[in-house]
Structures are given as C-alpha cells and as structure tokens.
Automatic annotation (TrEMBL):
Keyword rRNA processing in record: no
Taxonomic placement: Archaea, Thermoproteota, Thermoprotei, Sulfolobales, Sulfolobaceae
Localization per Swiss-Prot or TrEMBL: Cell membrane
Keywords linked to the UniProt accession: Cell membrane, Membrane, Transmembrane, Transmembrane helix
Protein name: APC family permease
InterPro entries, sorted: AA/rel_permease1, APC_superfamily
GO cellular component: plasma membrane
Membrane topology: Multi-pass membrane protein
UniProt keyword annotation of Nucleotidyltransferase present: no
Transmembrane intervals: 20-37, 49-70, 108-127, 147-166, 173-197, 228-247, 267-288, 324-350, 371-392, 398-419, 426-445, 465-484
Superkingdom in the source lineage: Archaea
Primary location recorded for the protein, binned into one broad class: membrane
Organism: Sulfurisphaera tokodaii
C-alpha cells in the first residue's frame, strides 16, 4: 500500500516532548492527588485499610504496564493504544473503542472542570474555618453554586485550550509545571502530617472541633476491626478502576516524544510514583490517627468528605502561607487532569483523522505545530457536557458510571497484547495480557454491579442515563467506522487495507 493513502506522508507533529514531559503527562493522568482527596476514602467499606489495597493494586497493574511498555517500544505512534488495537485486532475495533473512550473521557473532564470549584471551595473553606476568616467561608459556599461552577470550569478549560492552540509545547509545559507543583506540595503535605505524628491526637483536635466532626466518646465501638478481605473486595476496585490503569497518556503522544525510551519511562515511572504517593499518603493518615479514628472519620457520613489527606494537612498547621501552599497543591492536581486531557483527546482524534475515519481537517496544524481544529472540537464538546451539571447534577454525575468503558477498553488492549505476543512468540507478553484480561473482566463486573461506581443504582438496576451513554458511545463508534469505510471506498480507499499498515511518523 502506498503511504499516500493516509492523509499525508507525515503527521507534521514535532518531536519536542522530553522525558520529564512524558512522565508528568501520565502522572497527571493517574491523578494521585485526587485519589488522596475525596475519590477513595469516603467510599471505603467498614474494616477496609486503604494503604494495603493501594499496594496490592499497584502490584496487580504491573503486567499492564509491561504491555504498554512493550507495545510502545514496537509501535510508538500518535494515538498510542488506538493504533495497537486497530492494527493488531481490526480497524473497527480500534475506532469503536477509541471513540467510546474519548467520549467517556470528555464527559469526565467536563465533570472535573465543573467540580474544580469544589476543590477551590474546600481549600478556601478549610483555611477560612481554621483561621477564623468569615469572608473565605462565605466565598467557599458561593463557589459551589451551579453558575459559578460552570464559569470557573469553562474559564479554566478555555485557558488550557488557548495555550495548546497557541503553541503545542506550551500545552505540555502546562501539564509538566502543574504536575510538578502538585508533586512537591503533596510531599510537603506528607511532611506536615509526619511531623505531627507524635502528638497527632492533640494537634488534630482544633481541626475536628472547628469543622464540627469531633467523634463522640464511644465512637470506637462502631468501628469493626481491620479486614484484609474487605480491603481487597471493597477498596482495591476503587483504586484499580479510578487510578492505576490510566497509563495511556504518554503512549498517545509517542510520535512527539524525542526518544522511545522516554515514552516507556512515561509509563512505568508515573505508575510507581502514583503507587508510592497513594500508599504512603494514606499510610501516614493511619499511622498518625490510628486505624480506629481514621476509619471512623473516613466512613462516617458527617465527616467522610471533610476529613481528607489534604484538609488534615492544612488543618495541622497554623501557618497561613503553608496552608495556602498545600491548598494550591490540591487545586493544581485538578488542573493537571484537565491539562493532560486536552492533549490526549486531541491526539486520539488526530490519529483517527489521519486514518481517514474523521474529517481531514482534524489533522491540520497551525504554524505553531498545534492541531487547532481538534482542540476547538474538544472545547465545544466539553462546554456542551459542562451544561449538564447546571441542568441536572444527578444526571451529570451519572456519567461517572461510564468509567466501565475504560475497563472494557483496557480489556481489549490486553487481548491485543496476547495476540501480538502469539504472532511474535513473546511468551511474557502473552502471560501479561492473559492476566490483565482476566483482571479487567473482574473490574468490568465491579464497575457494572457496584453502586459506588455509578453504573448500577442501589436497587441493582443500571442507571438509565449511564446505560444509554455507554451503549450509545459504542454504537456511535461502530457507525462512524462503517460510514467512514463507505465514504473512503467511494474514493477508492479501502480502510480494511489501510489498517494493515502502520501510519508514517
């Protein structure tokens, strides 16, 4: 096949992604700081111990990391695992899965943008409460109203898009800088908690009292003893679904990365750092407060969303500068998610357009090397999703349950790893792929049946909004592929043959 059957001979994307950029991109993707905020602890069942589940979750994800490292080394292209799926399995599989993942991701990024105000509100409210600044407490309450949340989320997302449009390198710089700030401030927060371990029971009292979450005298009788089985069955899926498997960001920009080994570093190093941050962050909470107090405050409805790694760190110090530094760290973690998401979404759409599935306009670059039209498409789609929480909070949050799409996607990548291993006689890849395929079958089951993930409701039935969104995402992906195939056949280009070739660059 002639390379001219692709949109052009070269993608035009510039290789300016450094090793640091690659690592920070996936660190933002895995979002350890958000896991330490309110994405894990409020949902743990009584008897669970988060740091134990975190450590086991890290170990169970290593075979997936091996698949991504291996295939990134063999097929380092823009679009990353979309290219692997479409070339190893079939073009229709790659398009369907990648499109569904991008729609789910866009909905998620819109929710992150909308609820960015919650992180800001938490920081301002905690500092205002601890330091007796009533104006901050009042501002904290007003920020979470629908219109301010939309304006703040849309404004931040628009700024990120503008940076990426003006210069592609600036987009990566936003991710790198915000994630580095997040990383440093997380370490500072850990140090604050660690320093207070010897007298934590006394040092934490002002925070508990001012927040109105002081446990009653007999609280310990309501806390069951630690249970390994509960930790594995009740907490491990949270980390395994929301945090650890999301390592596709660095491979998605492989064509822009200066060296292939930087892409591979961008897979394994963020995974290990994320595992260390989450495990150590929660371990410090348990060591400082003890199992009984920590689990009581994590699981009690009145304190579950107030007593977090970040708020405790802010509450343990009376130094306002240090409080703001820690608070900024929480906000930059949220910002980093949006910053990496803008880049990765555009590269998947770019790759599918380069394969003639989407209109060719999505592969056009401006004079600064940025795929401007994919970014504008992302902006429009995200702003549309951002309207949903304003109209209906419950309807919008139901889209969190669409994370099942990610589990199905990673299952498919695992199968691609197995087939590639069989064809090329790579036993280690076959074993890793089979293990992760089984693992993601389990995680898919969890994401569908466990009400915590939002797909199923408390009565066991699927949320109709979530179900329709998930099914619709896959169906539309299939339709897009076959419409694109028919359109291209009329031009004398068979996508079935095109997908037997690796794209240039």
């Amino acid at each position: 096949m002639s390379r001219s059957l692709f949109v052009r001979e070269s993608s035009g994307l510039v290789k300016n992604v450094s090793a640091l950029d690659s690592v920070m991109l996936n660190l933002g993707n895995m979002s350890a700081g958000i896991a330490l905020f309110t994405s894990i602890s409020p949902y743990i069942p009584p008897g669970g111990v988060i740091w134990i589940a975190s450590l086991i979750g890290l170990l169970l994800t290593l075979p997936q990391a091996y698949i991504y490292i291996y295939l990134s080394g063999k097929i380092p292209k823009t679009g990353g695992d979309y290219i692997w799926l479409s070339r190893i399995l079939h073009g229709s599989v790659g398009v369907t899965m990648a499109f569904a993942l991008m729609i789910e991701s866009t909905a998620y990024f819109a929710l992150v943008a909308y609820f960015f105000s919650s992180a800001v509100s938490t920081v301002i409210g905690t500092i205002g409460t601890m330091d007796g600044i009533k104006s901050l407490v009042a501002l904290s309450s007003s920020l979470t109203a629908p219109i301010p949340s939309y304006v703040l989320g849309a404004g931040i997302f628009g700024i990120i898009i503008a940076f990426n449009i003006f210069k592609a390198k600036w987009g990566y710089s936003l991710v790198t800088i915000s994630t580095l700030i997040s990383l440093v401030t997380t370490i500072i927060a850990m140090i604050v908690i660690a320093v207070n371990i010897p007298d934590f029971s006394t040092a934490i009292v002002p925070f508990l009292s001012k927040e109105g979450i002081m446990p009653p005298p007999n609280y310990s009788s309501s806390v069951p003893p630690p249970n390994l089985l509960v930790s594995l069955s009740g907490i491990l899926p949270l980390l395994a679904i929301f945090t650890y498997p999301w390592m596709q960001a660095s491979p998605a920009v492989a064509s822009e990365t200066k060296k292939v080994k930087y892409v591979q570093m961008g897979v394994i190093l963020p995974l290990l750092v994320t595992g260390i941050l989450i495990t150590l962050g929660f371990a410090l909470m348990y060591i400082a407060g003890g199992y009984t107090l920590t689990n009581y405050l994590f699981t009690n409805p009145s304190s579950a969303f107030i007593y977090t790694f970040w708020t405790v760190a802010m509450g343990l110090t009376t130094n306002q500068v240090l409080q703001w530094i820690i608070g900024i760290g929480l906000m930059t973690w949220e910002f980093a998610v949006l910053a990496y998401g803008v880049i990765v979404f555009s590269r998947y759409i770019f790759a599918m357009a380069f394969d003639r599935v989407f209109p060719e306009i999505f592969t056009r670059l401006n004079r600064f090397g940025s795929p401007v039209y994919t970014h504008l498409f992302d902006l429009g789609l995200t702003l549309a999703f951002l309207v949903l929480p304003v109209v209906s909070i419950s309807g919008a949050t139901a889209l969190y349950g669409a994370i099942v799409i990610g589990m199905i996607y990673f299952f498919t990548v695992s199968i691609a790893g197995v087939l590639y291993g069989i064809r090329n006689k790579v036993l280690s890849l076959i074993i890793a792929g089979l293990f992760e395929a089984g693992y993601f079958v389990y995680l898919t089951y969890e994401s569908i049946t466990n009400p915590v993930f939002g797909f199923a409701e408390s009565n066991g039935l699927p949320n109709p909004i979530t179900l329709g969104f998930v099914i619709g995402s896959f169906v539309v992906g299939v339709i897009i592929y076959f419409i694109a195939r028919r359109i291209n056949l009329s031009k004398g280009i068979d996508l079935e043959l095109l997908y037997k070739e690796i794209p240039p660059d």
